[in-house]
Design goal:
- With 339 residues, this protein is of the alpha+beta class.
- It contains 13 helices and 8 strands.
- The strands form 3 sheets. A 3-stranded antiparallel β-sheet has the order 3-8-5.
- The protein is elongated and about 95 Å long.
- The mean pLDDT is 92.
Length: 339
Amino acid sequence: MIHHGFQYKIGENVLIGGFNSNGNCKPGGFYICDLEDVCQWLNLHSKMRTICEVILFKESILVKQYRKYKTDRFILQNPLPIADFLEKHNLYKQAVQKRGIYIQYIANPSEEIQIMAIQEDWHAIKLIKNPSEKVQMVAIKRDGYAISHFENPSLEFRIEAVQQDGHSIRFIKNPSEEVQMAAVQKNGSAIEYIKNTSKEVQMAAVRNRGCAIEYIKNPPKEMQIAAVKQCGLAIKYIENPSEEVQIAAVQESAHSIGDLKNPSIEVQMAAVQRNGYVIGNISNPSEQVQMAAVMQNVNAIEHIKNPSKEVQMAAVMQNVHAIEHIKNPSKEVQMAANI
């Protein structure tokens, strides 16, 4: 047994060199632990295979640290493989509660131990041979992706999986419409992993997450509207949206106007009436649009290049400090701002 260059042996082991009581996991001593803390260190390094019992000498130096001790000499005895050590000292529960994957050291673990392991880490399911339906369900409820480890799961398991995580449908072959619907109602973007979806499933997906429309070919206008009403930014996934769809998008999120090419005056107006600041995303806005923007938020004047005198006046009439954002204001505007 070699660790950090020291050859350990069954029997007496004495530190070579001076003992260093300072520092944590530093050279200058051997590290040991109490039986109750063994499971804390099972993953200390990948080559760990054996655990030994330790006997200290009367003259051993012993410094207590967090869940371990540092010493300069001891006797090693009764070396056992990890699995045998855990069994001998009845540490199964403690082991899997520390890390579920330690179930790999337990031969024929009980259903109780299996469940404890999965509750700590659902990935432990892949280390369990022929888990019962109860154990499988615990894993799925812990994380829907656990269904990827089961062959031909029942409808109940499939629905539970997608209700935990809609994206887990990617691991289900030929999901029924009921399963598809449950998946997209949990997470609309799960539709990315479903082939040949019905209009009902598609509509449920965009109502849950508007941007799911990215994965739907040739969505009808009503579906486009449902998508942008859920998330205005979904407009970027729609080819040649109608003015009606564009207006619905900017009404939900004014910033979505940044994804539109040559929006009409009506769309621009709807956007700035929702949030005046987005006028900065509109090229050459008309005076009408500028006026609507500053009426919605006077500070929008900061984002308007060369605002007309009327727009400047409307801004300072609402808040005299708006003049701070106007370059070269006219004397009339300055007077209105009491400058």
